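Q: My labmate handed me this sequence with no annotations at all. I'd like to see what the chain might look like in three dimensions before we decide whether it's worth expressing. Could you predict it?
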Amino acid sequence: MATIPISGMVQPVLAVYFVPGSHGPPDLDAAARDLDDWATAHVPSPLREAVAAFRKAGLLTVSVRPADQLPPLPIELLQFMGLGELEERIARSSTHVVLVLAKDLNMPPRAGLWAALAAALSIRDRVDGVIFDPEALRIVKPEDAIDWFSPSGEVRVAQHIIVPFSIGERGLGWMTTRGLAKFGVPDLELRDLPPNLDKLSIFMNGVAQHLVEATFREVAARKAQVDSLELPAEITIDRAQVARALRREPDNAPTDDIGVTAAIRFDPDQSQSAPPMIRIERPPSFAGDTGVWLNHVAGELLGKTHKTLMAKTEGDSMQRAHERALSELPQIKERFLAGLKPGEVLFIKHGFPTTTGSREYLWAAVNRWKGTRLTVQVANDPHEVEGLRMGMTVLLEEADIFDWMLQLPGDRTEGGYTSKVALEEGYEGSPE
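A: Here is what I predict for the chain of 432 residues:
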């Protein structure tokens, strides 16, 4: 079993940054009247009545403060998370902040969470500011948040947290969550990801949804008198949980129960200054290392949509593509060693010996490149290479490289010349 600390009561907070107009900071009594009208227009029943009752009970606090009395906004992080030009201009120039704080029971319908969001959105419309979520360290976009309200106050975790992803010195990824404190749960971390698996953020959202729903049930059962949650050491995350976390519409919800198993571990005595996190790990029941397991998770939750195309390596077009790739390899190595930008991943293609005596050319994500030796992780499903699995770590020599490809943000790429030939001349089948 895994024991996770949880809270029966939570305090969601939002901050609206703005520059006062000629009449000074907003009149909070007038802002309260605006909120009544805003909720009538945008919050569906019966959640609207729950929000009104929450406010009437005096559990929502709204106050105005000078911006310099609060910690400065993390502008660089917000830029990395997609801060818009207008939002940045308002954030940098803001002199005042409206703080919205709720004292909320951590169970559905989470009236305090929705009351705070409705108040922040209403005030933002009044002062033309930006809404900052200090727990998730992000800007809340009104055009998105206005659609988060549902009749029952259903929580879609992906709407309330962020999932940062970074690459460490070993060339492996580290993925975390930020914002689960508003649900009384520690944040999550997943270590040693292959660098090309940034899309596993959906898995993190699925695990977060699982924990939040389990917490809600425990808080409701114990009438908020609770400080811990007992969970199995291994949990199953299925596509339905991921769909709930990501707010997929019912028409697009998965009809199967495909899921993956993960181990969870919480060490309250982690020797670090930051709060301890729930670690997601490869379950002991899985046969394979962490890289193989994470590729399995990606395949099960994301699905496998790419067809395998074969092309003869001795063809003129393929040889020209191969020679071009090798001629540019020194510059690509230099770029990799200098440090790739966030969202960039370098792949190399190598021909692995098959059981039939031929070679199967597979892409692999590069972790490290020291001298002439590369540490890579297989990024394709091998068909005829005995003992090789997608996600496995392999050591290769620079001379073994057949092609290279640099994956860029926005589904853009550089290189990959031999794959372009395969798309034009290839066929479905097995390696020859």
